[in-house]
Amino acid sequence: MSAEKKRVYVTRRIPKPGLDRLTELENCEVEIYDSDEAIPQEVLLEKVKGVNGLLCMLTDNINKDVLDAAGDNLEVVATMSVGFEHIDVETCKERKIRVCNTPNVSTDSVAELTVSLLLLTARRLLDGVAAVKNGEWGKWKPMWLCGIELTGRTVGILGLGRIGYGVARRLKPFGIKQIVYHDVCQVSYADDIGATFVEFDTMARECDIICICCNLTPQTRHRFNKKVFSMMKNEAILINSGRGGVINHDDLFDALKEGQIFAAGLDVTEPEPLPSNHPLVALPNCIILPHMGSNTWDSRNMMSATAGENVVNVFNKKVAVGDVYSC
Ligand code: DGY
User: Fold this and answer.
1) For the stretch 71-92, what's the b/e string if a residue is b when 16 or more beta carbons lie within 10 angstroms of its beta carbon?
2) From 133, 224, 315, 317, which residue has the greatest number of CB atoms within 10 Å?
3) 103 in helix, strand or coil?
């Protein structure tokens, strides 16, 4: 007897490995939103009707309306991302719909980007590039474009998960004095890199560099706000490769403008995309990247493959790689 036919909707053009996984599945119909741009919500609501699997992106709002539109056949929502705050996980849980993400496969890519962004920000490298291009490079000056070096600094990591650990491990050889971290709980592998658990306020007060590597949750939302910026060192650098919503951007603007902290490097913002006329964009001490953490072919191919595999594994009643219920 042939396997029951499954229908999967993929909300974007994705790298081939993910589609290969899905099409290897016997008796499976795969439909794709054939665009590099995000699917409009009204199209998504139409397209999900009756599907068994939904392979989505972090830009898709998989809310109750989408889950209702999909109906009783929906078995799995597999997101091609680590973050899953765009999915109504509670409703999925109630309806026994599996929710899977793509952990592990973008860890190196995001950790490398985070360290790059820190170096870019701390050493004012973009100002240097702009100065050369704009003809502002005059004779050598003792106090021109001076930044902050990493050697001897105390680094704080908010969220010592895979990415936070990867960032800390890469920073250690720079001669960092101390690595501290804050998270929902202490983790044993912190010892491998000599990282010490501290309370959030201690981290804010004592660190020269803070890297935000955590998810967006009700607990982390706007964790960096006016009060926290006022506790931070004036020479501090804040890097965010987690989620934009962890920082209150109005308060960050004030803190950077008033010199409460030295600089910020953001790979993620709130909202995304950040409008080009947003006040943060004009600040010389704020470097903003367009959410590029996992932008390597290595990572994107693996993310696609993992998301595809997750759909297949749920259909086949096997354990999926990133089963978010256990998080
Ligand atoms: C993720 O996987 O959640 C990342 O933010 C994508 O770059």
Assistant:
1) eeebbbbbbbbbebbbbbbebb
2) 224
3) coil
Q: Is residue 291 among the annotated active site residues?
A: yes
> What are the pLDDT digits (tens) for 207-227?
999 999 999 999 999 999 999
Residue 53 pairs in a beta bridge with 8, 76
Reported as a single tens digit per residue, the pLDDT across 38-89 is: 999 999 999 999 999 999 999 999 999 999 999 999 999 999 999 999 999 9
Residue with the two structure tokens 């096997």: 318
What CATH number should be reported for the domain whose range is 6-105+297-315?
A: 3.40.50.720
pTM of the model: 0.95
CA distance 263 to 127: 13
- Ligand 1 centre to CA of 277 (Å) is 24
Which residues sit with their C-beta closer than 6 Å to ligand 1? 58, 81-83, 106, 291, 293-294
Token representation of residue 10: 């993929």
Using CA atoms, how far apart are residues 147 and 235, in angstroms rounded to an integer? 10
Q: How far is the CA of 114 from the centre of ligand 1 (A)?
A: 12
Q: Tell whether the model's pLDDT for residue 28 goes beyond 60.
A: yes
Q: Give the pLDDT score at 96.
A: 96
| Residue 31 backbone phi and psi in degrees, to 5 | -115, 140
The band of 1, judged by pLDDT with boundaries at 50, 70 and 90, is very low
Return residue ranges of the chain for CATH 3.40.50.720.
6-105+297-315, 107-288
